[in-house]
Design goal:
The complex is a heterodimer. By secondary structure, chain A is mainly alpha-helical. Chain A contains 13 helices and no strands. In chain B, a hairpin with a 2-residue loop joins strand 8 and strand 9. Classes of the chains: A mainly alpha, B alpha/beta.
């Protein structure tokens, strides 16, 4: 509890660090904040071309929204994934990148990874806003779902922050973490139903049946991936425009709380050693 | 106000000197959990009190543990044994201008750096004029700091740090910044500090500085406390030992 108070007391510092990241990131570029859209748009074009047109991954139309646009369907899952993956990547490196500061000044260390979460969330908000506009233009009745969308976005933010805290510490002791992470995230992206619908996995799982004679199926293992649940909920809210399954929401909440609690505990335990370990 | 500003109580600090360190997963797996190290005691059972309102100098040769002690005082390192108790707000100036963001303007960096050092936004706004004035970079305050000369950079950093207005200020060898005019200003600031009843703890290799500024001193040698007390005799003892050695 006392620790939370300490973190709360550092909120101004956190705000300033977030502002530093946000202002510094696109300074001296002509397009400024628009650059934040370029990466998702480029990926969208590639995936839509490869998986939408060539492989013909054919997700069901939004129910009840009636949307049937692969690019939009893709973005509803892709934007949350990009957010998660950049929070985790940059967050994991945040302590090492600020080694000089940690060794010279005392402050609540947790603000360093959290400021990465904040500045990435800022960019994500911007991207999601543009996606909302695009969905509206395409005819989705998405406005009433915005409050629920914000709740889900907060859950994903908390989840990503928890993971980033753990990895930031791990990276101080094992610099392999960041390299390992980039591979893990690439694999993770293909193990999450972002560019193909989960119905394909369900089908494949049925064909294979129980693995090695057990009742465990492929889909059971597949669904252990927390990001699968987040992406599912995001699609249900944004693309289908309906209440997400209660159980899915609960699983997301569980992952978010679990990651945040564990991340904070691990971070707190190691915080005092950072100046020496770096 | 209590009479003691900082109480250092049987503080020991060791570092691990790794002969073979498991800093990669490969080596951790190959050799198991064991990494080969020996403990190096940078500080051994150091105890002293810093009286409130004094200017306290830490002296000693290179590698005597001064900087380690200073970092312990600044809450950057934590002692393995013993405890350090502060009575009042501590600010540490171990390096000026750390945490500046080169793309941001001087003004933005004042707010950023001030909050890293623990000032609230209100406080910074209140002291903003004073900080800018002290640093002498008014004309360039809206320029990104990457265009500052090294002198301007350091002066701005110093001006922010000195305006944190702590009860206890911990300073490392940073007095050697800027031109002589600026040094004079800094020196004046320390005098004001002392007059306001604040405590300053500083590390310096320059015995002249220590003699001039400190009324109390502690001499460390190889991590152990040799003498502590009034500045003059302590410095004398230290210099005598150098003469012999």
């Amino acid at each position: 509890m006392r620790y939370l108070k300490e973190v709360f007391a550092a909120r101004e510092l956190l705000g300033n660090l977030v502002a530093r990241e946000v202002k510094g990131k696109y300074s001296r570029t002509i397009f400024g904040q628009l650059w934040s859209l370029v990466n998702p748009l480029a990926l969208m074009l590639i995936y839509t071309f490869v998986f939408g047109l060539i492989f013909r991954a054919n997700p069901d139309p939004g129910d009840p929204s009636g949307l049937n646009v692969f690019a939009l369907w893709l973005l509803c899952g892709l934007l949350p994934w990009i957010f998660f993956s950049s929070v985790v990547t940059v967050g994991a490196g945040s302590l090492v990148a600020n080694a000089g500061l940690i060794q010279k000044v005392y402050f609540t260390r947790i603000v360093l990874p959290l400021s990465v979460v904040g500045s990435t969330a800022y960019n994500w908000l911007f991207e999601m806003f543009v996606l909302l506009v695009a969905l509206l233009i395409a005819g989705a009745f998405v406005l009433p779902w915005i409050p629920l969308l914000l709740v889900v976005m907060i859950m994903l933010t908390v989840f990503s922050a928890g993971i980033a805290l753990m990895l930031a510490i791990a990276n101080v002791y094992f610099r392999d973490t960041q390299w390992f992470l980039s591979i893990a995230l690439q694999i993770g992206m293909y193990l999450t139903p972002i560019i193909y619908p989960i119905s394909l996995v369900e089908q494949a799982s049925k064909d294979v049946g129980g693995l090695a004679g057990t009742p465990i199926t492929l889909i059971d293992l597949y669904r252990l991936n927390p990001m699968d649940h987040f992406v599912t909920v995001f699609r249900q809210v944004l693309y289908d425009n309906r209440w997400p399954d209660g159980i899915e929401m609960l699983i997301c909440l569980g992952w978010a709380v679990g990651a945040a609690v564990l991340g904070t505990i691990i971070f707190r335990r190691n915080e005092k050693n950072l100046a020496e370990a770096l | 106000m209590s009479d003691i500003a900082v109480s250092v109580n049987h503080v020991s600090k060791s570092f691990r000197l790794y002969h073979e360190r498991n800093q990669t997963i490969k080596s951790a797996v190959m050799r198991g959990r064991r990494s080969v190290h020996e403990d190096f005691w940078a500080l051994r059972d150091v105890s002293f009190d810093v009286p409130a309102g004094s200017t306290f100098g830490l002296i000693g040769s290179n590698g005597s543990g001064k900087s380690t002690l200073l970092k312990c005082l600044a809450n950057i390192y934590y002692p393995n044994e013993g405890a350090i108790t502060h009575f009042g707000r501590v600010a540490a100036m171990l390096e000026v201008g750390s945490g500046f963001h080169s793309e941001l303007s001087g003004r933005e960096n004042i707010f950023l750096n001030g909050s890293i050092l623990g000032m609230s936004k209100k406080e910074i706004t209140r002291k903003y004029e004073e900080i800018v004035d002290f640093s002498g970079v008014e004309k360039f305050i809206d320029q990104p700091v990457k265009n500052y000369s090294s002198g301007m950079y350091v002066r701005l950093g110093f001006a922010i740090a000195i305006n944190v207005d702590p009860d206890i200020l911990v300073v490392d060898e940073v007095l050697a910044v800027g031109d002589s005019e600026f040094q004079e200003k800094c020196f004046q600031k320390f005098v004001d500090f002392r007059r306001a009843g604040k405590t300053v703890i500083l590390v310096s290799h320059s015995m002249e500085t220590v003699k001039l500024m400190c009324d109390q001193a502690a001499w460390l040698s190889h991590g152990e406390l040799m003498i502590t007390g009034d500045a003059q005799p302590t410095i004398q003892a230290y210099q005598d030992s150098l003469g012999q050695g």
